[in-house]
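In this section we walk through a basic example: taking a raw amino acid sequence and producing a predicted 3D structure, encoded as discrete structure tokens. The instruction is simple. Fold the sequence below.
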Amino acid sequence: MKQYVIDELRPADHKTLKTYLEKHYGPAALGSIYWIPIGSGLLTEVQAEHRQCQPHYFALDLLPDRLACELLVRTKNSVRCSCMAYATQKQRDWLIELIDTIFKRLEIKT
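The resulting token sequence is shown next.
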């Protein structure tokens, strides 16, 4: 699995990040997974056509010592579909910029 990982989180940073993610994206699924919706302007042609699969998401796994962001665009509506694929360059850049902005806003040093 391709991922963007930030490791060596301190306990206080984990708590701050967890609070932020819950406030902005809802409670974690499966204990530590947060679903980050991808805006329609970032979808590929196939993803945009698959309205029944929307919204599309990135999955973030917040563990006590690290944040692992999957670079796979997923849907909650289907386990397998042609619209699920690794992020395009534009989608990947958007996710990394989002995470980096969150860390900067929360003053978490990496």
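Looking at the output, two observations stand out. The chain has one domain: 3-105. The first helix runs from residue 11 to 25. In the next section we compare this with other chains.
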